[in-house]
Every structure is written in C-alpha cells, then in structure tokens.
Amino acid sequence: MALETSVIEEKLTDKFGDKVTGFVIIKDILSFEVEAGAMHDVMQYLKEDALLRFNFLTDVCGIHYPDNEVNRQFAVTYHMHNWYDNVRIRFKSFLNGEAPEIDSVTDLYLGANWQERETYDFYGIIFKGHPQLKRILNMDEMVSFPLRKEFPLEDGGRTDKDDRFFGRKTDNVNNN
C-alpha cells in the first residue's frame, strides 16, 4: 500500500499540532510549513516513524523575503524523499530577518552538511549545531551574502559593463 498524503498530514498534525500548518499539494508534492523551533523534531519523526520513513534529504535551500514582516524574512526549505513508497514532500520554516537561525540536521542526514553550508554561504542563515559552518563556495573574506535581495546585481564601478558593448540603448545614443 502506497503512503498517502492524507496519512502524512494526519500523523504530523496528531504529533505536532499547530507547529505544522498549511498543507497543500503543489505539483504533486505535499508541501507544508513547520515552525522553526520544531523543525528538527518534525524531520526526525519523518525519518524514524515506521510508516513515514523519509530516508533521504534531497535538498536544503534558503529564501529571502525582504518585504515580509521581520519574523518571516527568511525561510529554509527542505525536500525529503521516502524511497520505499516513492513519495516526496517539501516543507518550509520561516526565520527572523534580524538573526536567521535554525537547528542543523547534520545529526540526522550527513548530506545536510554541505547543503547547510551552501545555504549559510549565500544567505547567512545560521544552522545551530552544525559541525563546521563556514563558507563553501565564496571566499572566506567575503562579508556579504550574495543571494540576499539587498546584494547588488552588478558592480556600478565596472567599466567593462558599458551598455554600448552589449547592444543596449542608452540615453546619449542617437537612435536614427
């Protein structure tokens, strides 16, 4: 018998109550929201429950919502896969924009190590309890987080980005 999304939702709400909300199917994947403080417990339950068996953490990624209220300016999204029943789920935990942090899940999934480091590197989200939370792709000396919305898309001081060289119109070009 295949694992039904209604069973996943029922088991999670029975166990965690209002710490798991917003269940919806998006592109055939059950998606929901988990309170940041309960995320580790929810993930452990999803992994260790004899019926749920979400044995693979597919992805961890960050999102920046600068226009949201301060306690929902960042989010971490987790994608999990139950290989036994071939069921995938996605859930998101929102974080405070002034101090975005959430528990690490490296104790549950070793593969989370690099995924959490990448999310930290690009968004500045702190994964509490991570064994070696440091930059993984950007230079260690970098002080900004390039996937945050406040990061400039282009360096205004670069001279090799002159619009004339890329066929873009400029105010001082004659269009005849």
Q: What is the strand and helix layout of this fold?
A:
Elements: H1 5-16, E1 20-26, E2 29-34, H2 39-48, E3 56-64, E4 74-82, E5 87-95, E6 101-103, H3 112-123, E7 126-128
Parallel strand pairs: 2-5, 6-7
Antiparallel strand pairs: 1-2, 3-4, 4-5
Q: How would you classify the helix and strand content by structural class? A: alpha/beta
Q: How many structural domains in the coordinates?
A: 1
The average pLDDT value, as a whole number, equals 91
**What is the global morphology?**
elongated
**Rg result:** 20 Å
Distance between the termini: 70 Å
Short summary:
It is built from three helices and seven strands.
Question: What would you say this structure looks like, in words?
Answer:
The model has no long low-confidence stretch (mean pLDDT 91). The protein starts with a helix and ends in a 48-residue tail after the last strand. The protein is built from three helices and seven strands; from the N terminus they run αββαββββαβ. It has one domain: NADH:ubiquinone oxidoreductase Nqo5 subunit (Beta Polymerase, domain 2), CATH 3.30.460.80. The strands form two sheets. Strands 1-2-5-4-3 form a five-stranded mixed sheet. A two-stranded parallel ribbon has the order 6-7. It is α/β, with parallel strands linked by helices.
List the main descriptive attributes of the protein structure presented here.
single chain, 3 helices, five-stranded mixed beta sheet, alpha/beta, elongated, 176 residues, 26% strand, Beta Polymerase, domain 2
